[in-house]
Design a protein that fits this description.
Layout lengths: L6 H12 L4 H7 L4 H14 L2 E6 L2 E6 L1 H18 L2 H26 L6 H20 L8 H12 L4 H4 L6 H16 L4
Helix pairs in contact: 1-2, 1-3, 1-4, 1-9, 2-3, 5-6, 5-9, 6-7, 7-9
Length: 190
Amino acid sequence: MTHASPTGLLVLHGVRLKGHAETGAVAARFGLDTHDTNEYLLDAQAHGWVTKSSFADLTGWSLTGTGRQRNESQLREELDSVGARAAVDAVHEEFLPFNARAARLFTAAQLDRPDDVHSQLADVADALRLLEGRLAAHLTRFAGYHARFAGALAQAIDHPVWITGIEVDSCHRVWFELHEDLIATLGISR
């Protein structure tokens, strides 16, 4: 049976995956209510787990060192309580060759050397669909990566920024978040 993560875990984890994000983006990451997310973020700020900062015209939340430790503890406890460590580890091992391939394709796109990058990323998307299905069968928070990646890839046909752009939910951004999600969940480093 698939496990739905508690809101407090999702809020901290959403901040981790986004890196630095406003409340609405943190809430949107897992389809949470914005008001409730803001309340969780304020509580997390009081515990010293998140901090709110601004630079240029951007204001957002980011994890503190203590918040990162807290989120890692939540993820470890959740993974063990669900009994999904072996399944997530197996998916991570299968993910690694696709990660190397995706990194090469993202670099080619950034260097304006497409060499059929779009169709090759479509193959990566197909693999992602299967990997996500296996992850989401245990933890619902893994659902949605494929839809976001495929949606960005569809946009990239007319607007190449959707492959590696930082101002949109690009293929690269989605892939980076999935990688971060996997390593955070397993408690490993890149």
